[in-house]
Every structure is written in structure tokens, then in C-alpha cells.
Design brief:
The complex is a heterotrimer of chains A (about 100), B (about 200) and C (about 575).
Chain A lengths: L5 H28 L6 H23 L7 H26 L5
Helix pairs in contact in A: 1-2
Chain B lengths: L16 H29 L5 H7 L3 H26 L3 H31 L8 H28 L5 H4 L1 H31 L1
Chain C lengths: L12 H6 L4 H31 L20 H36 L8 H20 L18 H4 L3 H29 L12 H32 L11 E2 L2 E2 L8 H35 L6 H14 L15 H27 L10 H24 L1 H7 L3 H31 L5 H27 L21 H16 L1 H13 L13 H4 L40
Antiparallel strand pairs in C: 1-2
Helix pairs in contact in C: 2-3, 2-4, 2-15, 3-4, 3-6, 3-7, 3-8, 3-13, 4-6, 6-7, 7-8, 7-9, 8-11, 8-13, 9-10, 10-11, 11-13, 11-14, 13-14, 14-15, 14-16
Classes of the chains: A mainly alpha (about 100), B mainly alpha (about 200), C mainly alpha (about 575).
């Protein structure tokens, strides 16, 4: 990360503190959301969405992904696609079982 | 002849070697935990006796919420330790890194209490598929925390001399450790709602 | 700063040859270890083939391995079968294709002084070595080595003998080795390419290693997870893969139940399908190098081959359930996987066709490397074509778990990949050792291998179509529908033993030439790629190049019109 001036770094500290606050709030939101009366599928998606927002903040700011060049983003994009594949295809195979 | 781009960044990729290396490692870890999450989904779908719902209700949500905030805080202190290094503030660096280690320790202590409470009530991995996947996911995550703590301790004490002898290389190494540590936090951000709240 | 002092201090024997961090030494370590394991896996098969040809007959010469009677028990057959697959894939082919050739030649072909992480490289070799030792230990525990197939399906694998636990620990070590290696390969190729070496100027061998590394990186972790889950089932009495109410030896198993054997299958095949592309891609890479060099023409359709191999790697992640058509899956999901499976056959055809077209109008040099590369082409064609009826669920009903499947995949891996790896040995031996292999012995090795390997695997299609199941210790002798094709067992077994004999000229050639072979110049084959044009004759120095070369052209500029010689090095301006 050469090329970051002292001012840039001091600015990013403010961002990090802001992200920390957002993460703390979202944690409370996560727990609060669990008290909503939702079907298990809806609850799962809501939980994943809130967690994804938190995750994006961690990855984007703490892990500097928002300021990286394409190489790493391409690798992670590919990984994310295969993550969706392994999360959902077995589940879809399970639900689409043959009727005997 | 040196291996190029060990410390300085390669122009077109914008990274030094170890940064790409750690991201590739983290990509494989995404697939590792992803595989386990997929197992969670599959097992829950096949759970006809409701062990997932009854099992989750045995878990201590307030304690886990506290632990979530502990880990997020440790992520902040981790990045602040890197910031301190970039600004040349060595003492602050050590303070922040030490705090990260401390917070990780707190996380472990809470987990210890959680686990022993379960064992005390006769709840083990073999009790049900829910607890099997619960202990596996949180256990593997815990192993990752311990591994991270070992590395952080190394850079805090025995390996800290490089801070003065090769400072740019040392800063890069702390950045790498930070990336790993944030990832461990990230996994917990997903683990917590899935296991405890669903 | 590399962290490794590059001074000329004398390294101890241990640092120089055993715990070396030089990619060339590590590549050789991988190569020698892998060749030994390949030979061992071959021996396991030769023993299996005795049982198949002459069930329950005492085995000559090696019968003492099976106790007083000299007769192999069915359980032992199962162990041999599971370990043959495991050893060949994880201890033989992949370490040779990726660990040996990849490690040795990727840095050289991209003009790099070493891999990006030399110490990680050394660690990955020793993890592989440790994994191999652990796998061998399995043979000595009570109950023998793993015997639930290389696929280790539960519930059987969950309740199998101790050898299965050993297998799982071995796999954890091997997967670790693989992950470290793939991180190294990808970082090396992305970051350490020499100046002027753009992506589309890379030798296809490097591209094949690049795609392969991604497959290993992203597909192995779910299997590692599944392995941990199976270990927990076996050691901690969990029920990840054990359904409720399972009865073993007349008693209900005392576990919580609620698990699913299908979960294992999904997690296993998520890795194991990309794994087969790990087996074939480096082989295609080697064939591309050998073909272009010995046709003295550029590889036809380089761009198509690059795009096809990347597309192939991508698709390989979404076809895995074609190994599970018979598990009661619904028609929608079955249609999805049949479609993706049919689509994935296209890039393979593109690559193979481009390679065939590369021969058109060529001045072919028929040396041993080229013979094996040429032999690869139709053999891989047969392997690929016979896969099609397996990828269609309707025909798979009849062929699943029969000898047809064994014939199909062996055609791709044995006269396919392994022939390509032999081509690699003959091609790169002069660069690794500074000596040449004897050509006459090489030609004998090729022709005998070609004949006998077809003798083993072609009859398998006949038996499979007749309905003979795989993994039967007596080769189908107790089934009425197999009677007409049983005689083929003797044919296949004889071919297998003769194939074993056919390797003797090769082994002799390797050892003799290393000791006293004819000296090779540094660009023995008049090739265009950097390992030949810019790296000196062995022993190659630490860090490879006096000066890092700069690249000005593509990898296969043979017979360029107007040039003074029939090859133009990549580093020539």
C-alpha cells in the first residue's frame, strides 16, 4: 500500500471507526430481526442479507477491497460464484428428489 | 538474484506477492466454511424431528452477541495496529496489536464457558446433527482464532525486531495478518446468526 | 528482498538436497516420489488382476502376502481397489503432473528465478511425502488399508475398519500440500512473469497449470470439510452421514442418526469432478509443448485452446452430480446436470481438434516424446467419447457402476494422461539432467505400452455393456449375465502383466541415461520457450537465469517465414 500519504491514512481511520459503529448497530439489528415472525426460508435469507452487509463492510474497508485492483476482485468474484454453487445446488437436489 | 515483488508492488496487479497469496488462501477458506455451511443447510433440510430448532434454543444468544462484538472490536484494533505502523508510531502499534490478542483471548474464554456448559448438560457432538454441525463450525472457527493468535503473538514479541530492520516488509506482514484476522471475524459474522438465531 | 540470502555460502547436504527451497530440487523430489508411487499403484493393480482372472487361486510368487494359502481374500481385494485409485490419483498422477513438471518448468517458462514462495513450496512437498507415508501405514493396521473405494461412500466408510481413518488423515495431509502448491502456482504465474510475457504469450503448459491450480484451490476445501465430518462420524460418534435407524450386523446403530449419505456424495464429487480436469489439463499442456516442438509449426488455434481450457475449468465446478444420477434425484436437477455435462464436452473437443489440426502440413519428428504425445490424441478421444453415454442419465442407468465406467475413465487417465506424462519425461529429461534418454528404448517402451494398454481397457467396454459390475472381487464370476464375457478377464490380466514388463525398458533407460547418457546441449530440441532458450544446461544455477530474459513474441514461433532457422525463441527481439 505504498503511495498512501499520512493524510490519506488519517482519513481512513475515520472511516474505520464509522465502519465499527455500523457493524455494532447491525449486530443489534441481527439479533432484533431474529424476533420477527418469519418462515424459516425468509428468516435464513434475511439473516444472510444482514450478514452480507456486515461482511461487505469488513471486506471492503478493513480488508481494503474497495481500493484494490481487478486481480484480487476477479479471484474473489469467481470464489463467490462457486460458493453459491456449493451452497445451493445440493439443497436444490435435495428438494427436487424423485417421487418413488 | 531476488524474487521480484516480494515487498514492492507489481504495477498491473497492484499487489506484492504475499498479498495475493493470502487472498488465495482466504478464497480456499471461503470454500472450506462454505462446504460446512452447505452441510448445515443439507442436514437441516433433512431434519424431520426438529433437532435444529430445539438445539438452537439451547444456545446462549446474549453471550454469543457479546462475543460477536468482541471479535468486531478486535478487527478494529487489528487495523489500527497496521495504521500505527504506517504512521511510524511503534508504541501504538504494539498497544493495538496487544489489545487484539487480548480481545481474542476473551472470545476464547467465552467459548470455553459455552462449551463446558454444554458438556455439563450432556450435550456433545454426537447428541444430534445440529450439535454435530454446531461444534464443528464453531470448533473449526476457534482453531482459526488460535492459529491467528499464535501468529499475532509472534509479531508482537519474537518477530518484532524486523519492525526496525526491514520496516516496509514488516508492515506488509502485519497487513497480511490483518487480512487473515478480518476473515476470521467475517466467518463469525455469518456463523452467529445461522447457528444461534435461525 | 526474498528472505533467502543469495550468497555463495556452502549449503549442507540436507539444505541442498533434502530440505531445499529451490523449485528444481523440489520438482525432482516430487517427480521421483510420484514415479515410485505410480509403480506401487501399478503393482496393486497387477495383484487385483490375478484375482479377477483366476478368482480364489493362490497367487504365484507373491502369494505369501496373503498368508499360508496364498489366496487373496475379498476384503483384501477391496483394499487393493480403494488404494489403487487413491495412490494413482493423489500420490502418483497429480504430484507428477503438477508437483513435478509444474514446479520445475512454470518458473523457467515464465522467466522467474523461482516460485513466489520457495519455503511454502518445500512445505507442500513434505506434506505430500507425509501424506504418502500415512497412506502406506494403512496397509499395516488391523483390518488393512481403506477398503470402501477411493470414493469412501458412507454409511460403509463410516463403519469400515481402521484403515479408513488412516486414509482420512492421509487425505488431510495431501489436501494441505495441494492447497499450498496451488497458492504458490497462481501467485507465481500472476506476479512473476518476465517483462513482455503477456497472458497471450504464455506457453499453453503454463495456462494449463494456472487453470489446474484454481481447480485445486477452490474444489478441494469442501472435501477437506467432508473428510473432517467423516472423521468425526468415525471417532466422535456423530451422524453427519448416518441416516436414522441404520442397522449394522443385526443391531440398530447407537447414534443420533438424522444424517445423510448423500451429503458426503455431494461434497466428495464437488472436488472429485474438478479433480479429473486436474488430471487432464497438465497433460494437455505437455502435449501442446511436445506437438508444436516436433511439428516445427505453431500450435493451431492457441487462443481457442486457452479460452476452451478456462471455460472447461469453470464448467467443471457445475457438473458433479452426473456421478449421482442413480441416487433418486428429480428430473429437473438431473436435466440441469446433464446439460452442463454435455456443454463441458465442447471445450475438450475444441482442444483435441486444435491439436489434431496442428499436425496438418507439419514436418513431424518422430522421437519418443512425440510418439507418446501423438498416442495421447486418439486415446483421449476414445476416453472422452465413451464418457458421453455416462453423462446422459437414461443411458447411465444401464452403464453406471459397470466396467464401462472403468474403461472410460482409464482411457482418459492411463493412455491419456500417463502417456502425456511419459511424453513430458522424454521431452524434459535433457533439461533436468543434461543427458538424453535412449531413443530406441523409448520407442520400444511406446509401442509395447500402446498395444498392451488397449488390451487392458478396450475389453472393459464389452464387459460393461454386458452388465458386469465394478468392484466385484471375482470379476463377475458369480453372475449369470457375465458368463459370456468372463474370458476377457484373462485377456485383460495378461495385458496388464505384459504392460508391466513393457515398463522395464523405460525404468532401465531412466537410470542408465542419468548415469551415463549422451550429453545434451541446453536447447536440445531447438525449442522456442524460455526453459530451452535462456536457461543453461544442468546443473541449472540457483535462481535459474544470469539475467532475467525479456519476451518479445509468442510461445510457438516455429518456421517463421524469413527467419534464418526453423524456430524463433520467445526472447529474441
Amino acid at each position: 500500500m505504498s503511495g498512501h500519504s499520512v493524510e490519506d491514512i488519517k482519513k481512513s481511520v475515520k472511516v474505520y471507526i464509522g465502519v465499527f459503529a455500523a457493524l455494532a448497530v447491525l449486530t443489534v439489528v441481527t439479533v432484533a430481526a431474529s424476533y420477527l415472525d418469519l418462515s424459516s426460508g425468509e428468516a435464513f435469507f434475511l439473516a444472510i442479507i444482514i450478514a452480507s452487509v456486515k461482511g461487505t463492510l469488513v471486506a471492503g474497508y478493513f480488508m481494503h477491497l474497495f481500493s484494490e485492483k481487478t486481480t484480487v476482485l476477479a479471484v474473489l468474484g469467481l470464489t463467490f460464484f462457486f460458493l453459491i454453487v456449493i451452497m445451493f445446488l445440493p439443497f436444490m437436489a435435495f428438494t427436487d428428489q424423485a417421487v418413488i | 538474484m531476488e524474487i521480484p515483488y516480494n515487498v514492492e508492488e507489481r504495477q498491473d496487479t497492484g499487489m506484492f506477492n504475499a498479498k495475493l497469496g493470502i487472498w488465495l488462501f482466504l478464497a480456499s477458506e471461503v470454500m472450506l466454511f462454505g462446504g460446512l455451511f452447505s452441510a448445515y443447510v443439507f442436514l437441516r433440510m433433512g431434519d424431520v424431528t426438529g433437532t435444529f430448532i430445539s438445539g438452537a434454543s439451547e444456545l446462549n444468544i446474549p453471550l454469543a452477541t457479546f462475543n460477536t462484538l468482541v471479535l468486531i472490536s478486535s478487527s478494529v484494533t487489528m487495523i489500527m495496529s497496521w495504521v500505527s505502523l504506517k504512521l511510524g508510531e511503534q508504541k501504538k502499534f504494539k498497544t493495538y496489536l496487544g489489545t487484539t490478542l487480548l480481545l481474542a483471548g476473551v472470545f476464547l474464554v467465552v467459548k470455553y464457558f459455552e462449551y463446558t456448559a454444554k458438556f455439563h448438560h450432556g450435550i456433545f457432538p454426537e447428541t444430534s446433527t445440529f450439535f454435530a454441525i454446531y461444534f464443528t463450525l464453531t470448533g473449526l472457527h476457534m482453531l482459526h482464532i488460535i492459529g491467528g493468535m499464535v501468529v499475532i503473538f509472534y509479531f508482537l514479541v519474537p518477530g518484532s525486531k524486523m519492525m526496525n530492520t526491514e520496516s516496509e516488509r514488516f508492515t506488509n506482514r502485519i497487513e497480511i495478518v490483518g487480512l487473515y484476522w478480518h476473515f476470521v471475524d467475517l466467518v463469525w459474522i455469518f456463523l452467529f446468526p445461522v447457528l444461534y438465531l435461525l | 528482498m526474498s528472505g533467502q540470502p543469495d550468497t555463495h555460502h556452502e549449503e549442507s547436504f540436507w539444505r541442498k538436497y533434502i530440505f531445499s527451497i529451490d523449485h528444481k530440487v523440489i520438482g525432482l523430489q516430487y517427480g521421483i516420489t510420484a514415479l515410485i508411487f505410480l509403480f506401487f499403484g501399478f503393482c496393486l493393480m497387477m495383484m487385483m488382476r490375478w484375482q479377477l482372472a483366476y478368482p480364489e487361486q493362490p497367487m504365484p510368487w507373491f502369494g505369501w502376502l496373503f498368508g499360508e494359502t496364498g489366496v487373496m481374500l475379498p476384503e483384501m481385494y477391496n483394499s487393493l481397489g480403494a488404494m489403487h485409485g487413491t495412490v494413482m490419483i493423489f500420490l502418483g498422477v497429480v504430484p507428477l503432473a503438477v508437483g513435478a513438471f509444474g514446479n520445475y518448468f512454470v518458473p523457467l517458462q515464465i522467466g522467474a528465478p523461482d516460485m513466489a514462495f520457495p519455503k511454502v513450496n518445500m512445505t507442500s512437498y513434505w506434506c505430500y511425502f507425509a501424506g504418502g507415508i500415512v497412506m502406506m501405514v494403512g496397509f499395516f493396521v488391523p483390518g488393512g488399508a481403506a477398503n470402501s473405494g477411493w470414493t469412501s461412500y458412507p454409511p460403509l466408510a463410516d463403519i469400515a475398519t481402521t484403515g479408513q481413518t488412516v486414509w482420512l488423515f492421509g487425505m488431510v495431509l495431501l489436501i494441505t500440500s495441494s492447497l499450498l502448491g496451488s497458492i504458490n502456482t497462481i501467485t507465481t504465474i500472476v506476479q512473476l512473469r518476465a517483462k513482455g510475457l503477456t497472458w497471450m504469450r504464455l506457453p499453453f503448459f503454463v495456462w494449463s497449470q494456472f487453470v489446474t491450480a484454481f481447480l485445486l484451490l477452490l474444489a478441494f476445501p469442501p472435501l477437506e470439510a467432508a473428510g473432517v465430518l467423516q472423521l468425526m462420524d468415525r471417532l466422535l460418534d456423530t451422524s453427519f452421514f448416518l441416516p436414522s435407524g441404520l442397522i449394522v450386523s443385526g443391531e440398530v446403530l447407537n447414534v443420533s442418526g438424522g444424517g445423510s449419505p448423500l451429503l458426503w456424495q455431494h461434497m466428495f464429487w464437488f472436488l472429485a469432478h474438478p479433480e479429473v480436469y486436474v488430471l487432464i489439463l497438465p497433460a494437455m499442456g505437455i502435449v501442446a509443448e511436445v506437438l508444436s516442438n516436433n511439428t516445427r509449426k505453431p500450435l493451431w488455434g492457441y487462443k481457442s485452446i486457452v479460452y476452451a481450457s478456462s471455460f472447461l475449468g469453470f464448467m467443471s465446478f457445475i457438473v458433479w452430480a452426473h456421478h449421482m444420477f442413480m441416487t433418486g434425484m428429480g428430473s429437473t436437477i438431473s436435466a440441469f446436470f446433464q446439460t452442463t455435462t454435455m456443454i463441458i464436452s465442447v471445450p475438450s473437443v475444441v482442444i483435441l481438434t486444435a491439436m489434431f489440426i496442428s499436425l496438418w502440413g507439419a514436418s513431424i519428428r518422430y522421437n519418443s516424446a512425440m510418439l507418446f504425445a501423438l498416442g495421447f490424441l486418439p486415446m483421449f478421444g476414445i476416453g472422452g467419447l465413451t464418457g458421453l453415454p455416462l453423462g446422459i442419465a437414461a443411458s447411465d442407468i444401464h452403464l453406471h457402476d459397470t466396467y464401462y465406467v472403468i474403461g472410460h475413465f482409464h482411457y482418459v487417465v492411463a493412455p491419456g494422461t500417463i502417456f502425456a506424462l511419459f511424453a513430458g519425461v522424454y521431452y524434459w529429461f535433457p533439461k533436468m539432467t543434461g543427458k538424453t534418454l535412449n531413443e530406441t528404448l523409448g520407442k520400444i517402451h511406446f509401442w509395447l505400452s500402446m498395444i498392451f494398454i488397449n488390451g487392458i481397457f478396450m475389453p472393459m467396454f464389452v464387459q460393461g455393456l454386458a452388465g458386469v459390475s465394478r468392484r466385484l472381487w471375482d470379476g463377475g464370476a458369480s453372475y449369470a449375465h457375465a458368463t459370456d464375457t468372463l474370458w476377457l478377464n484373462e485377456v485383460m490380466s495378461a495385458s496388464a502383466w505384459l504392460l508391466g514388463l513393457a515398463q522395464i525398458p523405460f525404468i532401465y533407460n531412466l537410470i542408465k541415461s542419468m548415469k551415463s547418457g549422451e550429453k545434451a546441449e541446453s536447447n536440445h530440441w531447438d525449442a522456442t520457450t524460455l526453459e530451452w532458450t535462456d536457461a543453461p544446461s544442468p546443473p541449472l544455477p540457483h535462481r535459474n537465469f544470469e539475467v532475467i530474459p525479456e519476451v518479445y513474441r509468442g510461445p510457438y514461433e516455429y518456421s517463421v517465414p524469413g527467419a534464418d532457422k526453423d524456430f524463433t525463441p520467445q526472447s529474441e527481439a
